[in-house]
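Worked Example 4.2. Consider the chain below.
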Amino acid sequence: MSVRANGRKGKGVVQRPERWSLRRPGSGLVVAPDGRWLAAALAGGTARLWEAGAGQESRALVLGTRAVRALAFSPDGRLLAAGDAEGRARLWSIPEGEPQVEWQEAGDAFYRMAFSPQGRWLAAGLRSGTLWLGEVQP
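Applying the procedure from the previous section yields the following structure tokens:
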């Protein structure tokens, strides 16, 4: 196994990794399929977006006031889905950070999210044991 970090190549371990402060860590972390973006779920209802190559925070994406629990990038990296502990979910366009659609699963909480390989479907697992599946339309 070979890993590259900070332009250096190593065997079996990451050498000298980048480190960024999350301030209020939550329960999710995802990397866009092209590796350009990194998104972190935070406890205060926010997802933070970083441009990975630059190591700089790009923007804060506010979902609500409860912990963001689920994150997923679309396969083309142009959408970020997030779901929180109150059952609120939203899609944002990336890198603009513009909200595209929002929905609510009242009384439940999002735990996991994933896009289908072509990006047509978004699946989510909820605290109640419900599997949610929605079609993503351009």
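The domain at 22-135 is CATH 2.130.10.10 (Methylamine Dehydrogenase; Chain H). The chain has one domain: 22-135. Compare this with Example 4.1 before moving on.
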